[in-house]
Amino acid sequence: MKKRIQYLITFGVGLAFVIIIILSKSIFKVDDLKTVYQILTDAFFSVGVLIFGFGLLVFASNGGTFDMLNYGIRKLVDLFRKDLYKVKDKTFYDYRVSKQEKKSEFLYLIVFGLFFIIISLLFLWLYYQY
Fold it and tell me: Please, which residues have CB within 8 angstroms of residue 124's CB and are 6 or more apart in sequence?
């Protein structure tokens, strides 16, 4: 059930951004069909690239790409804590082990990113056919 909610939220947010882009370009005032296809291509492609990019960032984060940066920022913030004894991870190794246990899912972001990109390619094909 949790996966369905992730998929529905991702699709809904992506579709909402597509609608916002379409409405900001005043698609209903355009008379030329070629311009309509251009607006639809731009809207779907930009949202698809953003969602796909977020999926790639989560994938990179799961692989440990940003672990040292996150650990350094956490240690910097811990310097200003009142209780230094409540610090979770004393060493980078402890932080890395705890981070390995909490990996985020990213496949749904990549799937919907590709879905929106494929729809944009369909509108691009229609644009060039017109």
Answer: 37, 41, 45
